[in-house]
Fold each of these.
Amino acid sequence: MVHFLFLWMMGALLQVCHATIYTNDWAIRIRGDRECVSRIAEKYGFTNMGQIGDLKSYYSFRHSETAMRSTVSNTQVSVSVATETEVEWLQQQVVLRREKRNSRANHVFSVNLKSENLPTAHPSNQTLHNDSMWRNPWYHSGMNIGGAWRRGFSGKGVVVSVLDDGIEREHPDLKPNYDPLASRDVNGQDDDPSPNYSSAAASNYHGTQSAGTIAAAAHNSHCTVGVSFHARIGGIRMLDGDVTDMVEAQSLSFRPQYIDIYSASWGPEDDGATLEGPGPLTRLALENGVRNGRRGRGSVFVWSSGSGGLRGDHCSCDGYSSSIYTVSISSSRSEHLEHLERCSSTLAAAHPGGEGMVTLGPQKSCSRTTAASSLSSSVGAGVIALTLQANPLLTWRDVQHIIVRSSKSHRLPDPDWSVNGAGFRVSHLYGFGLLDAEAMVLEAQRWRRVPAQRSCVQEDPQISRAMFPGSVLTSVFQSSGCSSRVVFVEHVVVRLSIDHRRRGDLSITLTSPSGTESKLLNNRPFDDSTEGFPAWELMTTHSWGEPAAGGVDSEDQRLVL
Ligand SMILES: *[C@@H]1O[C@H](CO)[C@@H](O)[C@H](O)[C@H]1NC(C)=O
Ligand SMILES: *[C@@H]1O[C@H](CO)[C@@H](O)[C@H](O)[C@H]1NC(C)=O
Ligand SMILES: *[C@@H]1O[C@H](CO)[C@@H](O)[C@H](O)[C@H]1NC(C)=O
């Protein structure tokens, strides 16, 4: 009885925490000139805060008579603004729960180290040839980063921006590479992304640490050297405040002609019960980025694949890392194994550096990483910066192709490795394996751009099917329309709606015509939701390179779901 009560109370508490919080910000799409936008803003008591990032016709409006945070929406305002003929879409912004990956573990301690005790890195002169891990913190990563450096690649000319809690632009390791044009404070609405250290509760140096991993300067004998130590590095401060769909979209579409790589190590909670992905504006920002960013070659969005493994989480329930537009990176460090999430959308793994590796700390300090710290996606962003220097003409899909081809599976133990129909070894933990920087720059130099992306969308004619508890539902999906349009598969996205009494009990496997089995979803013990999957998209990269037609003697594509 007591037990029952306790559980009930927990449920009630959680409900309070999860109540929707409405902000005083609206995202509005208006077909009209600047005057028209100002007129509408003024008429309804808004301040026009400007266009949302690079998204044309989308504006950020702040309402003066609405509370900054409230549990009730102001539908009255929404309804009246919607009557304007030029207003095509609008949405009052709600607060999203977004967490920094591994931040808790990461911030257990930070040591101020005297710089004379620290290894120094001089990667561009002959010390590079010295096989000493002291001089190259990435030496033992198995990723051949030194090999890419020796070939002359250091990220020069490539611009990377870290979307996080800010970056310390005055940090001696960042200052030489800091780029104000790649930086923005979305939380504070200004151009200075410096983190706020005055809040004791939040240790806001996650972004600084990530930025250092990517592009800490060489030759300054301070904490460390970044993977791409000549790349220009910026920061977008967006996690230190209320995160909304609009905040994410502003950040992901900030200067897409200037920034090449966006690095994000955060997402919906990895609690094993959350099912969340990018909202409408953020989806638009990602699509806009790959279509138009980098003068049409496409922005590269690097994402961490999640660390909720201990809570039975599955990265397919994180719509950011499972988007086809993000390069989702997991960790190759054995201590991380139980934290890692399995899913079929992870593209590759990176080694975040050994335990105790020196990295950046707050207030110009250095710190040592702890066992659970995860900077893998930042390392991935650095390696991609080296690759883009080797060939700046690569498109966002070329980058993914190069990762698939050059990543290494040996030395990463996983019973799950399998060989897909195109001969690539792939796993649900590590994608196509550990990134290999030297192999990537070499591949990039001789790479010929892949043809334009083609997509094939087909609907299952059987609209709905019932499923019995404990049963297996096998759905064979035949598709012939794809075979002529899509020759080789890159991503496969399965969009489905499922009603179920307990979402965590579901698991979903997709078998390709070549026989590759992608675990699109695994059971999640902590997911008690009764909401099922409302038009959720699951993605797999495991059939990469396989013929869409399913072998020479078959005209039909056969997807078994
Ligand atoms: C290589 O590094 C070690 C350790 O820092 C140093 O003692 C040695 O002199 C270096 N060798 C060369 C050839 O630079
Ligand atoms: C920094 O955080 C503190 C505590 O949360 C807050 O009071 C202060 O206004 C913040 N400063 C800035 C510049 O945002
Ligand atoms: C390598 O370069 C750094 C900075 O330019 C310099 O201080 C150091 O002495 C150089 N090392 C060698 C062995 O030339």
Amino acid sequence: MSADRERQSWEPKEEGEGERLPPGQAWTKRFPVLHYGSVPHTPLESWDLRVFGAVERQERWTWDEFCELPRAKVKIDVHCVTRWSKADTEWEGVHLRTLIEGKYILPKPSAQYLLQHCENGFTVNVPLELAMSPNFLLATHYNGLPLEPEHGHPLRCVVGATPERCGQQDVYFWKGGKWLRGLEFLEQDKLGFWEQSGYHNRANIWQEQRFV
Ligand SMILES: Nc1nc2c(c(=O)[nH]1)N[C@H]1C(S)=C(S)[C@@H](COP(=O)(O)O)O[C@H]1N2
Ligand SMILES: [Mo]
């Protein structure tokens, strides 16, 4: 960033900035909405989340049951493949790692990948190791409020980079599915919706793995 321009209040601090903004990205303070298709509106009474595939025990949680799971907050920078980045976004929800360590979910030892199943047949795949990181959250709240319909209400996955600890594995924001309804554990990788349309399967933000 050039020094002859006044820094906007929403721009991240100077310290560590070089490592914080991935190549080809620009900060925004807006929160753009990006998805394929229309915004679903499933009533909470008929909503559920299914856990299936390479697991010892299938699960089905109603909304009330999901709200009883152990909760956490994260602050992450999100980086969209369309080149906008948003710093210090605050999310609340449930860590997949917590569910697995707490034995709410029992993946088979052979499970290596996670396929997020969203409303209207949308899917997105991630390595299980990535989904187990603290930067990956099943989120119900953004900035202390329930998710807006267009941002994934009532439940979405979010993934981003932690400013203090930018990791080699950080991925673009599309790897978090909005309107999540199922978690499928897989032994072999399966491409999701955008990955089948030419988005890079690994989606690494530091290596600019945008499209193939
Ligand atoms: N269900 C669903 N989730 C999705 C998408 C989608 O098309 N459908 N698009 C992804 C993409 S490309 C991006 S950049 C982010 C955008 O999230 P936002 O609209 O909250 O900014 O959602 C991701 N999750
Ligand atoms: Mo995107």
